[in-house]
Every structure is written in C-alpha cells, then in structure tokens.
C-alpha cells in the first residue's frame, strides 16, 4: 500500500499536469487504437473519438483547497468511526493534503473576532510587503542594511514565489498520490488481462492490488459528485473541499476490507468471443450486488473481450480462487447496460458503429419512456 509521500521538492520539479485523469489511461488502452478511443458523451448524446489523453479527465480535477475548522470537524467525525489503528493513517492523509497551505502568509489568513489587530491586517500583497519591510526596519536598530526599495522588492519577490509554490502544490499533490497508486496497480493489469490472479498469493501484492482497485473505484467524477451532492449540505462545511480526503478514507477502508477477506474472495473471468464487445465508462468499477454487511461484488471490464467479477468464492465458484466462463452476446449486453447505467457521462468502446447503435437505442428508449409518463 502506498506509504511515504515524495518530498515536496520532487513535486515542484515535475511538469505541471493540468489535465488530470479520473479514469486511468493505461486501463483504457485495450479499447483504443493508436491512442484514440470512441466515446459516447451521454448528456449531449454525442459520439466522438478523442485521444486517450483528452478523455476521462478534467483541468486540475484533484486540486486541494484549504480546510476550515468545520471542514476538519466533519472529517474528524468520519475518522472517529474508523478502527483505532487506522485513525492515524487517515489524519496523516488530511495533514498531507494540506501541505500546500503550510505556506500560508498573513495576508491570506482568515479574519477572526479574536484578532485585536484585524484593522491593521494587510489586505493585499503590496500592503503586506510594506508591512513586513517596516517590521524589518524596526528590528534593525542600528540602521537598515539595504535601502527601503531593495527590501520591498526582495520581500515582494519572496512572497510571490511562495504563493506560486503553494498554488502549484495545491494543484498537483493529490494527483501525485493517484500516480503513486497507479504505479503500484500497473503490475496487476497485464496478469489480469492474461486471466492470472496468482499475485493474490503474495501478501504484499494482494494488499497493494486491493488498495489499487478500491482507489480506482472511488477516484472518479461520479464519487466526487456523490460526495457533495445537494442531499449532503452541512452547516459550515464545504464538501467540495473535503471530498478528496473523504473518498480516500473510503477507498483505503474498502481496500483493507477486501484484503482482510481475501481468503473468501475469488475472481470470475468473463471471456467474450461474441461480436458484441464489452464497453467501459467513466465509472469503470461498478457494484453488482451484495447484501448489507457483506463485501460488494465488483464488476471490472478489462477490455472488449474480457471482464472480471470479484466476489464471494462460495457464491461464484466454490473454493477456487478463480474460474473462467464464456459469455453469450445477451450476457455481454446485460453487463454493458449496467456500465451505461453506472456511468456519470462517458461510455467507451473500441467500435464506433457499435457505440452509435447503443446511443441510438438509448435515445429511442428515452423517447418511449417520456411518451409513457
């Protein structure tokens, strides 16, 4: 499982990635040809064929924001329900994702009723520079070692550089974490696509795989929208600020739950030799079922000709860790329908004509439903 975070300096040395993916490009490649994939954007009912780099992504999707005391209280309440041995891990996550705001300067500090000098608080960077220069001058009892203009220029440059560093870290630090999880997950994609899950027998690999799988499920736009939907309005809490931490907690907990239940779980590899390909979507891991209190049964398409289900060994296939089964075209269509229903907006396929037919069928069904209502 992902452990120590890379030093802040390494994050600053990396190229600034504006287009941040919530669906992993390496995952989508089996549906692509020459790095282009066919996409159905359901909300516009539009079919297009973008490069993988321009799909399942959003500008600075993982940008973090400074937390307020009510935000912290809300997240601490979530952590309080977790097992004692996990609480330090989740609190460390919150601290880590607030690293950019360790660079906060006085001009950006929130106003409070407890600040007796509030009226004198600098309102912008120019006032702050002037304020700091005067403070330095007051401390240099023997006289300034540089001119006022030199001091002003130097401190203004330092503050602007600090704000630039803070802004860059805010935009990249959570995306960098997702990159670390994907680095660990890369080792599992090829074996899964070869219908090989032998890595489950290695404890460290097993833990990393389930952590990767859980984060792929929770990292998406779907779960971001669920996290701060209108039904979750809380006084003083901005869920757009807290969702990254909250979803990380839920993903980490799911990964650990799956790992602890590893001897009860098994893989069903669904082989597809029909002319109907498996599709994927911007929520690539969906839950098929599972009673309350039980681990979910997760469906994960791996390419046009292969998908996998992770679920209870007993309900799927006795004591075997994995089995393979061939799907009929009707079964493939059923799974595709579930993926379409589970998507936020985008559905992906390797065949444009097939995807167009799916969109036209959905449009007809929508018209029929509207006529009946």
For the residues shown, what is the average pLDDT?
82
Question: Which of globular, elongated, flat, extended, rod-shaped describes the shape?
Answer: globular
Number of helices: 12
Helical percent range?
A: 40-55%
Unreliable parts: 1-13, 109-123
Could you characterize what this model shows?
The structure is a single chain. By secondary structure, the protein is α+β, with helices and mostly antiparallel strands. The model is unreliable at 1-13 and 109-123 (pLDDT under 50). The protein has one domain (16-103, 163-372). It has 12 helices and 11 strands. The strands form 3 sheets. A 5-stranded mixed sheet has the order 7-8-9-5-10. Strands 3-2-11-6 form a 4-stranded antiparallel sheet, with helices on one face. Helices cover 48% and strands 13% of the residues. The radius of gyration is 25 Å and the shape is globular. α3 (69-80) packs parallel to α9, α6 crosses α7 (203-218) and α7 runs antiparallel to α9.
């Amino acid at each position: 499982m992902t452990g120590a975070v890379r030093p802040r300096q390494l994050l600053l040395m990396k190229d600034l990635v504006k287009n941040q993916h919530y669906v992993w490009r390496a995952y989508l490649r089996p549906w692509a040809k020459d790095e282009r994939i066919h996409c159905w954007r359901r909300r516009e009912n539009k079919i297009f064929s973008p490069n993988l780099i321009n799909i399942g992504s959003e500008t600075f999707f993982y940008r973090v924001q400074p937390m307020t005391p009510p935000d912290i209280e809300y997240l601490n309440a979530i952590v309080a329900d977790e097992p004692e041995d996990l609480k330090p891990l989740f609190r460390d996550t919150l601290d880590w994702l607030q690293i950019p705001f360790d660079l906060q300067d006085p001009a950006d500090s929130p106003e409070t009723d407890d600040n007796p000098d509030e009226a004198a608080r600098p309102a912008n960077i120019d006032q702050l520079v002037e304020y700091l220069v005067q403070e330095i001058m007051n401390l240099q009892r023997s006289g300034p070692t540089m001119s006022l203009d030199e001091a002003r220029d130097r401190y203004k440059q330092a503050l602007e550089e600090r704000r630039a560093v803070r802004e860059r870290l805010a935009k990249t630090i959570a995306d960098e974490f997702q990159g670390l999880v994907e680095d660990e997950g890369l080792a599992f994609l090829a074996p899964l696509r070869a219908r090989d899950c032998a890595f489950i027998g290695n404890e460290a690999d097993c833990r990393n795989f389930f952590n990767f799988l859980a984060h792929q499920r929770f990292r998406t736009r779907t779960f971001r929208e669920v996290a701060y939907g209108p039904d979750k309005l809380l006084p003083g809490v901005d869920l757009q600020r807290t969702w990254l931490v909250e979803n990380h907690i839920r993903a980490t907990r799911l990964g650990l739950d799956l790992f602890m239940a590893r001897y009860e779980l098994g893989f069903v590899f669904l082989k597809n030799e029909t002319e109907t390909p498996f599709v994927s979507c911007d929520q690539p891991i969906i839950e098929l079922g599972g009673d309350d209190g039980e681990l979910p049964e997760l469906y994960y398409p791996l390419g046009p000709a292969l998908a996998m289900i992770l679920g209870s060994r007993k309900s799927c296939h006795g004591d075997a860790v994995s089995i393979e089964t061939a799907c009929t075209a009707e079964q493939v269509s059923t799974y595709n329908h579930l993926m379409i229903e589970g998507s936020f907006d985008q559905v992906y396929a390797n065949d444009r004509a097939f995807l167009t037919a799916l969109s036209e069928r959905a449009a007809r069904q929508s018209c029929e439903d509207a006529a009946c209502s």
